[in-house]
Design brief:
Oligomer: single chain
Keywords: Electron transport, Heme, Iron, Metal-binding, Signal, Transport
Pfam families: Cytochrom_CIII
Order of helices and strands: HHEEHHHH
Number of helices: 6
Protein name: Cytochrome c, class III, conserved region
Shape: elongated
GO molecular function: electron transfer activity; heme binding; metal ion binding
Cofactor: heme c
Largest sheet: 2 strands, antiparallel
Helix content: 40-55%
């Protein structure tokens, strides 16, 4: 085999490998988000995974503060102030609160909304799916 033919085979093999790699890691896989917080070490259940953008589109959620909310010292929601850069435990475990209070906050916000809207999962295993 001459050098030109070998080089052509290598280029073709590289292109085929690149296409296979890209198709194996589709955009959809990168959009899946795990709801995690460093306050939780060992978990009884797996982390909740969902497609953030798809969820918000289906739920018609346009305001990030719907989930990433902030409250003032009187417990009044601060309009337009988002906490996307913080972990939920930064606020929901403040002033002597426990991991149970943090877990309750997650459930009230997520599951509570699903129940209010009568849409979305509400049973434990529907959100906390076992890993294969």
């Amino acid at each position: 085999m001459n050098k030109k033919a070998l080089a052509a085979y290598i280029v073709v093999a590289f292109i085929v490998s690149a296409i296979a790699a890209v198709s194996g890691f589709s955009r959809e896989q990168w959009e899946i988000t795990s709801v995690r917080d460093s306050a939780f070490g060992v978990r009884m259940r797996s982390a909740v995974t969902f497609n953030h953008d798809e969820h918000n589109e289906k739920a018609a959620i346009e305001d990030c503060t719907e989930c990433h909310h902030s409250f003032d010292e009187d417990g009044v929601k601060v309009e337009g102030e988002s906490t996307e850069s913080l972990e939920c435990s930064d606020c929901h475990m403040a002033e002597g609160q426990t991991k149970m209070d943090l877990m309750r906050a997650y459930h009230l916000n997520c599951k509570g909304c699903h129940e209010d809207q009568k849409l979305g999962p509400v049973m434990c295993g529907e959100c906390h799916q076992k890993k294969n």
